[in-house]
Model the fold of this input.
Amino acid sequence: MSKLCKSCGNYYEGDHCDKCGYGDPNLKTHAADKYKKPTKPERFRTEEEKEL
Done:
């Protein structure tokens, strides 16, 4: 029975999508990394934000 991938919309067999990797527990996503990067310019950051 094939499943529909919630990420790319393709059908796949098995535990995770072969095209985009949706559902693969070993796949590292980069979505969380963008929230760790500072979004403010250096001169507008507080001292606490500069330490992070």
Q: What stands out?
A: Helices lie at 33-36, 47-51. The chain has a mean pLDDT of 81. Strands lie at 3-4, 11-12.
